[in-house]
Design goal:
Elements (H helix, E strand, L loop, with lengths): L30 H13 L1 E8 L6 H9 L5 H4 L14 E9 L2 E9 L14 H18 L15 E6 L8 H10 L5 E5 L7 H17 L14 H13 L2 E2 L6 E4 L2 E8 L2 E4 L8 H11 L1 H30 L6 E4 L5 E4 L20
Parallel strand pairs: 1-3, 1-4, 4-5, 5-6
Antiparallel strand pairs: 2-3, 7-8, 8-9, 10-11
Helix pairs in contact: 8-9
Subcellular location: Cytoplasm, Cytoskeleton
GO molecular function: GTP binding
Keywords: Cell cycle, Cell division, Cytoplasm, Cytoskeleton, GTP-binding, Nucleotide-binding
Amino acid sequence: MSESAKPHHPSPQVKGEKTHASDFSYVGIDAILEQMRRKAMKQGFELNIMVVGQSGLGKSTLMNTLFKSKVSRKSVQPNPEERIPKTIEIKSISHDIEEKGVRMKLTVIDTPGFGDHINNENCWQPIMKFINDQYEAYLQEEININRKKRIPDSRVHCCIYFIPPTGHCLRPLDVEFMRRLSKVVNIVPVIAKADTLTLEERDFFKQTIREELRANGIDVYPQKEFDEDADDRMINDKIREMIPFAVVGSDQEYQVNGKRILGRKTKWGTIEVENIGHCEFAYLRDLLIRTHMQNIKDITGSIHYETYRVRRLNESNAHFKSQPSDQPAVQPKANGQPEVKPSAPQANGVAAKHEVMSHEM
């Protein structure tokens, strides 16, 4: 049989694989998206959310509602006799969540004791220190000579700040906290327990808060200066017009018109948490999880952490330059007598850190 008469057997095609044999100009660059997706699915994701606000504003309930599971500190470690701590305690708890094959390590950081005392002066300082401590831990891992292939990320990606539903204006504590912390972390303000306000009171309160934020130079997430293009600006402008989100949280399920819903049952009806006609919880959920999660993490890494990193490296360089290289460093021995050792920088080139500084602009 001649060569031309031999039957042609096409090569087997892998199930799900697209063929581009007919497209002469096809190179295959678009396949990188599928490669990135597979790698991301293997590695999983990390998200660290801090919740700040005085007791009784529904912080734990809202977090349980956001992720539809018991992820808050109080849900895991119930303590009915828990007293108000004398100082602000930073407590975090991590969970591994999986949905449709996508794995995420969620860490919820709570700040019990914030705003619960008669004198709340400088109560933001422990929170600022905690945030900077996480930046410092990441920096030390990053500059190690033999660093890990994947550095554990404990940096706070987002801080949800709970505003009491007074209906009047922000308290001095609210203004001071957001003014200072907005420079080091992404802040998303919410009006807690918004079902205690009428629609008119809610709209007036939201407008008042936006005006106070502008008057005090407080730039909450999404920050206008970080919009990447016109499309981003258009989307984020709509979000900025809704901030702060008036939210209601509930982890109680009810049946309404044959549908299972999360809500709060009252004498006059059921408040549906995910119904945008009842509250703005759905907008908050979409912002944090469905539309802006990666952007929140990107701004944490490329803006807030980068600002901290540059400052720390500049401080370390100034520290080493100020020390004469020809003079030995004197260090105490175990018996209390001075021991002379030649001074030398650390292998990573960054001096040991004794006090965490805020990196306010």
